[in-house]
Every structure is written in C-alpha cells, then in structure tokens.
Amino acid sequence: MTVREVQLDGLVGPTHHFGGLSFGNLASMAHAGWRSRPRQAARQGLAKMRQVLALGLVQAVLPPLERPDLDFLRRLGFRGSDAEVLAKTAQEAPYLLNLATSSAFMWAANMATVIPSHDSEDGKCHVVMANLIATPHRALEAPRRTAMLRVLFPDTRYVEVHDPLPPSPALRDEGAANHSRLSSEPEAAGWHLFVYGATAAAPEASLPRRFPPRQSREASEAVARVGRLRPGHARFVRQHPRAIDAGAFHNDVVMVGSGNRLLLHECCLEEQAAVLAWCRQRLPELWVYEVPARELSLKQAVRSYLFNSQLLHTPQGWVLLAPAECQQGPAARVVQRLLDDGFVDRVLFQDLEQSMWGGGGPACLRLRLPLTQAELASMHSGVLLTEDKLQALEAWVDRYYREELTPHDLADPQLLEESRQALDALTQLLQLGCLYAFQREGV
Ligand code: SUG
Prior knowledge:
Layout: E1 3-10, H1 26-30, H2 38-54, E2 58-62, H3 70-75, H4 82-92, H5 94-100, E3 112-115, E4 125-129, H6 142-152, E5 159-162, E6 179-182, E7 191-196, H7 217-226, E8 234-238, H8 241-245, E9 255-258, E10 261-265, H9 272-282, E11 287-291, H10 298-304, E12 310-314, E13 317-323, H11 329-340, E14 346-350, H12 353-356, E15 366-372, H13 373-377, H14 387-400, H15 413-429, H16 437-440
Parallel strand pairs: 1-2, 4-5, 7-8, 10-11, 13-14
Antiparallel strand pairs: 1-15, 3-4, 6-7, 9-10, 12-13
Helix pairs in contact: 2-14, 4-5, 14-15
The structure holds N~2~-(3-carboxypropanoyl)-L-arginine.
Residues 18-22, 25, 28, 102, 104, 107, 109-110, 135, 138, 177, 249-250, 252-253, 358-360, 364 line the site of N~2~-(3-carboxypropanoyl)-L-arginine.
C-alpha cells in the first residue's frame, strides 16, 4: 500500500500580529508590539506551499480559526454587540484582546500528533489533538481546531481525530513539534521519539531555569496510548534543559527527523548517545547528523532555525527547505556540509520573516500526515492544493488581508467584519460549507 506524506500547512489569519505572548520563545518576546504585515505573512506561507507542491509532494491547506475569539471574550463577562465587546475589552483588558486575536494557530505542527495506520494497533490513522495549555493564547485553539479537523477527516474508518488531553498542567501537550517518526521507508513500521521537557518525577533542580517546559512526559505517554501506537515502538526522551533555556521552547527548534534521516543539535536531548543508540539498533540504516556546538551554538541554532527546516523525501531525493536566515553565518556552513556529505541532495531557502518573528519556521507551519491511498481519498479534497488553487488563494489574500496592523487596530470592528468576509469566501474556495460558527448563526 503506497503511503504519501501530506504536508498540512496552517494558513495565517487576517489578524496576524506580534503579541509577545510566548514566554521562552525568544522571537515572540523580541517582536512584541511590532507592526505586523498580515498580507505578507499569508503570502509567505503560500509561497512555501508552492515550493513543496513543485517538489511533487502532497500539500494541503488548513483554514484560519476565527479571530477575534468573541466567544472567549463573552465568556469572560464582556457584553453587548460585537463592536461593544471589542471596545470594552480594549479599554478594560487589552491583554485579553491580545489573546483573543492571536493568529498562532498558523503553526500547525503544534496542532496534533499523528500515529499513522502502519504503526497503530487497529490499522487506523490516529490524530491526537493537542491541548496547548502551556500558553494562554494557544489554549484557545484546541476545541475549534478539533471540530475543523473532523470536517477534513470525516470518515473515522480511516482517520480518527481524538479530543485533546484534559486541560491539566500535568498534561501539557504541544503536538508534533515534540514528536518524530523514523522509518526505513514510508511503508515500513515507524519508531517514535516523544520529547518532553518536564515530568512529575523530575527533581526540581534538574528543570530549566529560565524558561518553562511546554510538554510533559505524562502527556506524551497519554498521546501514544490514545493514538494506539503499537507497544515497543516509542521512546520517551527528555529535552535538554539547556536547550529550553536557550530558547528551544519546542524540540523541533533543535531537531528534525524524517524517514531514515535525523538532524539534531549536539545539545538537544538528555542521554542523547543512549537515545541515538536505541534508534540505530531499530533502524540500522538511520543516518544521524549531529551538529556540534562548536560549529553551531545553541544560540545560533535558535537564531537561524536551521533545525526547523522541513526535511522532505521527494522523487528527486532529499530536500532541506530551510528558513532564509540559514543563508548566512555558521548555519550556512552547516547547510553546505549537509549538501557536501550527501545528507540532503538539495537545499531551498524560504523567506518566512513574518512567521519567524513569532518564532515559527518552515517546520512549525506544517503537520505531517503519512496516509495510505484510501486514507488520503477519505480526506476532504477541497483543501488539497494545486497551482490553480494556490493562485486563487493568493488573490483571496490580496483582496481581504490588510497590509499592516498595529496593536491599536485589533479592536477595530471593521477588522472583525473583514475577517468574517475573508473566511466566508475561503470556505467557498475550499468547498468547506459552513465551517465557522458565524456562518451558522447567519451573521
Ligand atoms: O507557540 N508563537 C508560537 C510559535 C510556534 C512554533 N512552533 C513550533 N516550534 N513547532 C508559540 O510560541 C507567538 C505569538 C505572539 O507572540 O503573538 C507564538 O505563539
């Protein structure tokens, strides 16, 4: 049975802004309050999708969530018309408005963890939604995203979309950003590395000192159980506290794995040598490329987001789709070595500046779903991209997205109206029917 890996990319929303909402994510903290460029952000995301499509891979697009999240604000006691709710929140609780307008849902790697049917006990593909409770703005994503994914995967005989874990701090889950699947070939059984930052058993003194870990071991283990991962196919590994303190708030900031390739920083995991030995024992053909700190410090890794590149297996060989920031300095030298040594056959650079300023590189923007033909056929085909659809999406962005937003604009009721018009048009473009609550309420 042929398996194809679908790249499902989150589309940037019309309220894309820099809220400074993620403590421990250096780019998010550094760009707080900066003027944002929603149209450019969405265009940059679409340009990346076009690159992947041109490589002969399956690329799909995930619609934005509705923002501002008025439902959230109303539950917090703000009353009146939509415009009144926005005005009162802006006046009395601007921080809450900041949360309610976040477009962080674009970083789809955090949306869920995928256990492909080849690796599950029941032969189904399991998508376990992430609760994202480590940050207040991202905690708002899960319920609507879960409903949306169920629209994209309506046939539970093939793909089952599971509710997120209960929203307990002990069960902090950030999805595929802390999970890697390795296998000798797409159709072969996979070996899963689940990377966590904290566990109830960890002594206080061993935790990161500067920044909070965003994934717990207890969550990772639960995700493997819910996703029906075959016993013995997982290893739960602790992220190096130094990596978290250097700004690797998700493990995909210091590691990327795909098929029989694993690229990681020397200071990525605790007991890294033992973990790599476990992988090699199960997958003798695994090519591990460990980048030493003397060639690229953790600081430089976080600044360049080299390890947040997409590592893509294409009909023409391995391609590294890297952020444009890797074109200079020590990261560029590492990239050149990856090419010289044959770890990858080709490197493509992508300008994702607007996403990078929120701490999201190429790999953050996509969720990978290895699907059999039957599973792919069960997916809502409207979100699968073609060149024609990409062009239509670009025209749609140009029509509805503002060029610039300042924090002050977030309370503008006109922005809400424009966003709804944009999302309404998008559901037609992607043949999604009434996807959003405002469409069903007849607004
Ligand atoms: O969760 N940034 C996201 C970036 C997510 C990156 N994803 C992966 N590494 N897979 C986050 O920290 C910034 C929002 C703001 O500051 O407005 C933000 O949420």
